[in-house]
Amino acid sequence: MAAIEKTVNQLGRSREDWQELDKEHHLHPFTDHKDLHKKRSRIISRAAGNYIFDADGNKILDGMSGLWCVNVGYGREELVEAAAAQMRELPYYNNFFQCSHPPAIELASMLRDVSQPQFNRVFFAGSGSESNDTIIRMVHRYWDLMDQPERHTIISRKNAYHGSTVAAASLGGMKPMHDQTIMLPDIVHVDQPYWFGSDQSLTPDEFGLATAKQLEQTINDIGADKVAAFIGEPVQGAGGVIIPPATYWPEVQKICDEYGVLLISDEVITGFGRLGEWFGADYFGTQPDFMPFAKGVTSGYLPLGGVLVSNQVATVLIDKGGEFYHGYTYSGHPASCAVAIANLTIIEREGLVERIRDDIGPYLQQRWQTLAEHPLVGETRMVGLMGALELVKNKEPIERFDSKQGVGSLCRDRLIDNGLVMRAVGDSIVCAPPFTLSYSEADELIEKSWKCLDLTYKALNA
Ligand SMILES: Cc1ncc(COP(=O)(O)O)c(C=O)c1O
What we know:
There is one protein chain. This protein is α/β, with parallel strands linked by helices. It has 17 helices and 15 strands. Helix 4 packs antiparallel against helix 13 (334-349) and helix 16 (407-417) packs across helix 17 (439-460). It is globular and about 65 Å long. Pyridoxal-5'-phosphate is lined by residues 127-129, 132, 161-163, 233, 237-238, 266, 268-269, 294, 305.
């Protein structure tokens, strides 16, 4: 076993050594291992600002903020110091058994300050998946305590992503994940508000309304007295940055209000500024009962998740609930909370939410739109700093590629080889750069995108 004096990276192993050890010992998330073993993994060894560097020294612009999380960029000494100082003082203690600690308490009150007035309380978890598991527990507990235990169905959406634990995978709407897990009962999936993926016979606004109405239809089919909650990402991220038409969320809110269905806004990606407002719910004007969050709360520097719980629900859980038999060893981990406090302080001090709303957001959106002129691009869409390009075989009328061709992955591979990480979701290329993206980095992102669209187009027509 190697003795580690500085960082693991400084052990002096070659890229090939890392790749070999990785192949032999490491099972990766969301990976076809047999396929990876043929190609070998790309070893990312360091990062600074808005760039990552691989073990060969290639400098790559991070158009995905890691996994939609490194919102304040890499190399923030303040976050490193916050973790180190907290670890020196109190590296771990739990919040079970009538204990608490200052970082968890301080963060809980900061979260209240940045969220809508109905949120006054937070339950901490270690990840987005755990946060959504927590919500399922709380929703069921709430309706039991309200003497309506038959309200146990949760309505979600096809192609939604809410995490990868059994409960979160069931809640999500990803068929390939459902096929590989046992499914939690009483979860029903309705259509997603994906206008570009529809036959486009309705205007986007009509389509948004019609898709929301499906929720009402489903509530009526099941019986309103059996429906506990509706969950949705304000903008579906992993599903391909599906930005709903403006009519969608107001109608969903109206339906939830009318039928007394709890609204869960999954803010794991959209929380803490990604859309140019603190939360996606603020952007779309909903007033949810729960907001699960993770990722951007620490800008990914340490793992942390949680659930903001509305006063209406929290009051019932507290006043009527007795002990809630739920929690995680790392609920409110002190070092993670200390990093979150420092991270939210940076976001506020540097005005990063406003920067996305008024400055770099509109700039990148306008530049992103110019990619629509490329012959491969059927649609560009972006809200805040979260966007997608739809790659198509023909623009008018729209003709999609055969999914077996893997055109999205073809383009994604060219992007990374040319120094830009974006992600392929089917034939969409999605991007979510750090909030600190500069104007010249935004230009670089667009120039490299155009170049790699060209390379993909040439490869397809060779
Ligand atoms: C909207 C949403 N919810 C939940 C999750 C799960 O979060 P985690 O990977 O931290 O468990 C994700 C992860 O991408 C997500 O995008």
